[in-house]
Amino acid sequence: MNNKKYNDLKIEKADGKLGILLPGLGAVSTTFIAGILAIRKGLAEPFGSLTQMNHIRLGRRDENRNPMIKDFVPLVDLDNIYFAAWDIFEDNAYESALNAGVLDKALLDQVKDELSAIKPMKAVFDRKYVKKLDGPHVKKAANWYEYVELIREDIRNFKKKNNLDRLVMVWTGSTEIFMKPGDIHKDITSFEKALKENHPQIAPSMIYAWAAISEGIPYANGAPNLTADIPAMYQLAEKNGVPLAGKDFKTGQTLMKTIIAPGLKARMLGVEGWFSTNILGNRDGEVLDDPESFKTKEESKLSVLEHILQPDLYPDLYKDLYHKVRINYYPPRRDNKEGWDNIDIFGWLGYPMQIKIDFLCRDSILAAPIILDLVLFMDLAKRSGFKGIQEWLSFYFKSPIHAAELYPEHDLFIQLMKLKNTLRVLGGEKEITHLGLDYYI
To answer: Domain 253-360 maps to which CATH number in 3.40.630.30, 3.40.50.720, 3.30.360.10, 3.30.420.40?
Structure first.
């Protein structure tokens, strides 16, 4: 990090109203929205959120300066957040939350009026890209370019209606089919031409991202889709001064991998095989039951271990690692996903051992605080003059976007150090290196 560059920053105040734009009003987004409403009313606590619960150490350990993050850097107050969403179904946020079955009805009923007032706008959707879903609440236009303009109009209307000062968009929709970058994604001119030609290598998620960036709005991708991680998006974000983050919320099984794998590597313990299987029954599980959508998720999940373990540097320990990922749609489990891992490791003299992990998690419960942190941090990034890829937010993603000349950092603990050091510098403090010198205990 270039301290001279960041020491000159003048961060705009977090005053005013912040609008949250959510493509997809399903289990994850309604759990997030209902949670914020419940927290505002004192009905629940924001567990899992760094911005609301975490402290940050400043200076030497003997100084005992450990303010909460939300008191250290200027973040928007939760009372000043407003919500808007798009979805292929007409259900309002209360109806959608009931259908998702994540939160108890007793809790939802206490915020029913506010949730019921959040009605989704018609979505940009094409079943070619999410084959297991279909819904009637969709926009109609002649080509992708016109769809972008319709989304931009929605954004402007929402901002004007609620007298908002700033906006952030977070993709909370379903996983689209697997796509690779092509020539149409290489620059702004090529992408805009492809929009007007209704090119099949443009997916609906790209429409939302392009609209947001065009409006100068920070964009974060919570799914593994090829969306904002293409050169054209990067160029537009740099041009318009827009922060980007993504992709694919790091929630259940991959969260465990980014905790366990760094520990094994730190002790120089070898890994012969890592078998992962998941069962889940919500809309995400149904979507991933399609092989083409599963391929998108699989690529995201498989990339983690290779970058953490670095088999090219440690071939004796990890070169022959067999890594397999499975996802199975099992309706009775609903949103309560189960991630099971079998890890075959070896230690001193090559003697084998095993680790078994059975993580019975709640996917949307783990994702909701991620959305909250991303919303607040992306708004902070925008007010700080940051633009383009926000690698310091890799902590929240399975497949962190990164500069072309770099590899992504997947180690959860390195990610957290980078996040907190960025916050320290934004707050006018020194980075902490843990060198242990007498002036930096």
So the answer is: 3.30.360.10
